[in-house]
Write a structure and sequence with these properties.
The protein is α/β, with parallel strands linked by helices and about 550 residues long. It is built from 26 helices and 14 strands. Strands 8-7-6-9-10-11-14 form a 7-stranded mixed beta sheet, with helices on both faces. Strands 1-3-2-4-5 form a 5-stranded parallel beta sheet. Helix 11 packs across helix 22, helix 15 crosses helix 16 and helix 25 packs across helix 26. It is globular and about 80 Å long. It binds 1,4-dihydronicotinamide adenine dinucleotide.
Length: about 550
């Protein structure tokens, strides 16, 4: 049907060629009969092993590595030689492998991408290919690609412009589609759109692998990305485009440009907003309140803040508010203070959240005036939610919702200990990173981690299965609700706002079921609606076991 089988049928391999084909190679697990039939006799040691025995060896070798970057390198080499074994190991314990294959390790890997490079993976489409992108994409061996994750490397995590080094991001994101939600990996294609970089040290690095030029003007970019998006429609007509880690302004403008025309989404904007809405839904269940009655103050008005605000507006609209009424409930504060009418430095998307107030650069005073029921930190400024700020909020609101989302750890706007202590245990808290449980006043609290790995693999599974024509903000709200609903009352009593990581696959399938249902309901799906969507999705899942080759 998709990917892997296309690779297999593309060429009947045997002998050494088979051992070097990562999607077909079984290594020492080739049986004696297969070895005889496929010209492998003499090319492998005598022992015939099960995949579980091979996985034991992988785990042993991983344990001997000195740090996560070495484990990342080892795992990606394994993926390059035996993809089934790679996923067999990773899918057995996705929660353990998430921080190795993705944030934070992938960030260090991207910084050194040109130095760590071993083999190509995915596709590199560069400005040099302008006018020929359709032909370039047709070089990919799989024809039924269902999801492309594409980055320009323009803003990699919190590390800035990394140009072609950003390729680690689409590779890692798509690996997590499979690791977390069992989306068949052969249907996924990572792409780096190489448009140069503004990173001077990379441009001067002899081992840098990207185009050695500065980024083009917005107009040139638009023509280039238009050609890319159109070429995808022609070469991979069943494909959804997942935009990831583009420069903030590019992220916003290209999503707006394509979202009503083709199947696409931006995870930084919609996925992040979705997981934040999921956490807020649970916080509101605990408070027994509605979204439409909340007042939200964002500390930080960049791409994360604007993306979250957009999804909160969508959630409020589902409860009956108009765009305007919803936006009036959302305030923003950035490096230059409160967003208010006298500000002349604001982007059009930021202007949507400007409300009448005097200029202010005093967060505590703004909290006193605005009386937010929800305070969200996306500022990159660690410990900026000080005791006076939190205490002021807690004086006006019984259960203050405090999300300190900046990462890494030292950038969190406040720690869970501080939030619980300064609100006398009343805070409903989540962070962008995973903090340990906190003991306060004889009670254990479980601080949540607002991480969008609960969202995009599930959306990816739904997109893969339904072959959808569109992905909308509503899909991400549906995902948020499904994620929120998986937290039990008992878990909410401990302050847990997101499902536990040990149940990732189950959480993803249930979320994908909700999103797929919405896509069928909206008429976007391009396959027949099955009677039982959950069972149908389960039947499509990738299983990391060897399929017979001969
Ligand atoms: P960005 O650079 O686009 O925006 C940062 C914003 O913070 C800007 O509006 C800036 O003016 C403001 N800011 C900077 N210094 C400030 C100060 N001293 N006082 C008040 N505001 C200040 O960055 P982006 O992409 O929005 O990310 C922000 C943070 O959120 C990062 O640490 C990122 O890692 C984190 N993040 C967390 C996510 C999660 O789910 N946990 C998802 C996405 C981002």
């Amino acid at each position: 049907m998709t990917g892997q089988s296309d690779f297999s049928s593309a060429k009947k391999l045997s002998g050494m060629g088979l051992l070097f084909a990562p999607t077909l190679n079984h290594g020492t697990a080739f049986t004696d009969a297969e070895r005889a039939a496929l010209g492998l006799e003499g090319l492998l040691p005598s022992s015939v092993e099960s995949i579980d025995r091979q996985a034991d060896r992988v785990r042993q070798q991983l344990a001997s590595k000195p740090d996560d970057l070495e484990r990342y390198i080892y795992l990606n080499q394994l993926a390059d030689t035996n993809e089934t074994l790679f996923y067999h190991v990773v899918m057995a314990n996705p929660a353990y492998f998430l921080p190795i294959l993705y944030d934070p390790t992938v960030g260090y890997a991207c910084l050194k991408f040109g130095h760590l490079y071993r083999r190509p993976r995915g596709m590199y489409v560069s400005l040099k290919h302008k006018g020929r992108i359709r032909e370039i994409l047709s070089h990919w061996p799989v024809k039924d690609v269902r999801v492309i994750c594409v980055s320009t490397g323009g803003r990699i995590l919190g590390l800035g412009d990394l140009g072609a080094n950003g390729m680690g991001i689409p590779i890692g994101k798509l690996q997590l589609y499979t690791a977390c939600a069992a989306v068949p990996q052969g249907a996924l294609l990572p792409i780096l759109l190489d448009c140069g970089t503004e990173n001077a040290s990379l441009l001067a690095d002899p081992l840098y692998l990207g185009l050695r030029q500065h980024r083009p003007s917005d107009d040139v970019m638009t023509v280039f990305v238009d050609e890319f998006v159109e070429a995808v429609q022609q070469v991979f007509p069943n494909c959804c485009i997942h935009f990831e880690d583009w420069r903030g302004t590019d992220a916003v403008r290209f999503l707006a440009r394509y979202q009503d025309r083709v199947s696409c989404f931006n995870d930084d904007i919609q996925g992040t907003g979705s997981i934040v809405v999921a956490g807020l839904l649970n916080a509101l269940k605990i408070k027994n309140e509605k979204f439409r009655d909340q007042t939200v103050l964002f500390f930080g008005a960049g791409s994360a803040g604007l993306g979250n605000a957009r999804m909160i507006v969508a959630a409020m609209k589902l409860e009956g508010l108009s765009d305007d009424e919803a936006r009036r409930r959302i305030w923003m504060y950035d490096i230059n203070g409160l967003l208010e009418p006298s500000r002349t430095d604001l982007l059009p998307e930021q202007r949507l959240y400007v409300h009448s107030h005097a200029p202010s650069k005093d967060l505590r005073q703004v909290v006193e005036d605005v009386k937010p029921t929800i305070l969200i930190g996306v500022s990159t400024v660690g410990r900026s939610f000080t005791q006076p700020v939190i205490e002021t909020m807690a004086r006006a609101v019984k259960r203050p919702v405090i999300f300190a989302l900046s990462n890494p750890t030292e950038k969190a706007e406040c720690t869970p200990e501080q939030a619980y202590e300064w609100t006398k245990g009343q805070a409903l808290y989540a962070a962008g990173v995973q903090f340990q449980p906190v003991m306060y006043d004889g009670k254990t609290y479980l601080p949540g981690q607002a991480n969008n790995f609960y969202v995009y693999p599930a959306v990816g599974l739904a997109v893969y299965a339904t072959n959808t024509r569109r992905v909308t903000d509503a899909s991400f709200i549906v995902a948020a609700r499904a994620i929120a609903d998986q937290v039990t009352d008992e878990q909410r009593n401990l302050g847990l706002l997101f499902p536990l990581q040990k149940d990732v696959l189950e959480a993803e399938i249930r979320t994908a079921e909700a999103v797929a249902t919405q896509l069928f309901d909206q008429g976007f799906a391009r396959v027949d609606r099955p009677k039982d969507i959950n069972a149908w999705l389960r039947g499509l899942l990738y299983r990391p076991e060897y399929a017979p080759v001969a």
